[in-house]
Write the structure tokens for this entry.
Amino acid sequence: MKPARRQRLFLVLFIVVGSSVTVGLVLFALSENINLFYTPTKIVAGEAPVGKQIRGGGIVVPGSVIRAPDSLKVTFDVTDSASQFTMVYTGILPDLFAEGEGVVATGRLDKAGVFYATEVLAKHDENYSPPEVVDAIKQATEAKQAL
Amino acid sequence: MASWTWFHRLGSPKWFYEKTSRWLPWLALVTAAIMVVGTVWGLAYAPADAKQGNSYRIIFIHVPSAFLALVCYYLMAIAGAVSLIWKMKLSDMAVKSCAPIGASLTFIALVTGAIWGKPTWGTWWVWDARTTSMLVLFFLYLGVIALQDAFESRENANRACSILALVGTVNIPIIYKSVDWWNTLHQGATIKFTEAPSMPPEMWQPLFLMIIGFYCFFALVFIMAMRSEILQREKGTRWVELIVKHRLNKLTNHDD
């Protein structure tokens, strides 16, 4: 390789490595702010600001969903399997909202640690399966429990 | 040190044009066949998803276009590096040809994602790490397109585009790993390089076929863009003149 080309090769490597390190350090410094939502652990530990608009998210605890009989008010618990907090929301939930599924909500925390959501989004996981398979698994677990 | 002549022959526009003339019809045929089979298989024969129903079928377009948008960027950056180091004509043309194709693929990924997001998440758009970094990719492609015409001299435009392409490579691993590094609304990868896909074979088989189809489609469109770029930049040369003359003869004979 000619010396001039070798020099330009080093320039190219310098551009790629230099910009990667720069962006890497910036992202590392900002990593907490890049997270879309506060996890239940952070909220319970008091790391999320109270009274400010934030996002909180986690898995809806099965059996915790309580719907008001006379309004659209819904109360449910959200967990990350280590901690959990309660969310209150009045409005229409997305179709994919379900117990045991993920949610990300925008809203405010009160001093008691209850999250008042103004918007609830469903977080889909990376697993896909046809309905027959899910039904078969459900029937199998029910059969096992019946034994 | 080994001889580099083969490498320089590879960079000859004439060589590229003549070789691809023969490949192009076959590649077009293969692309059409794979895309038709993949689309019909994915949309009509693959089972519906238990939670999302039929709306998940947009992944047969969304995932391949997002995947190829990243692949296209790496190709553009490698061509940019070759162009900076070896000053090869063909690599400059490759940088220029990649940008609009990559921008279109990124745009398709963003739009199909939004259309899927509304019924699934409950919103068209959210500023999480995955969607935002994908939007940055779109702007990087637009930047390269804009820089191509921002300079009087071809050489300066080539250099500026190559440098922007190289700087932008840092975004590609960020897009890919964003769902693991930060908590996002976008789900993690269903198809990983290290693990088995978290979907049944009757779903990932058509998806893989569509990814292969998009690869072929990308190659096809890229080669066509390269060929038109070659003809434009080499229009003063003897071999291009001969091709044009030959084509014109064919046209006039046809009219008689």
In short: The radius of gyration of chain A is 23 Å. The helical segments of chain A are 3-34, 40-44, 131-146.
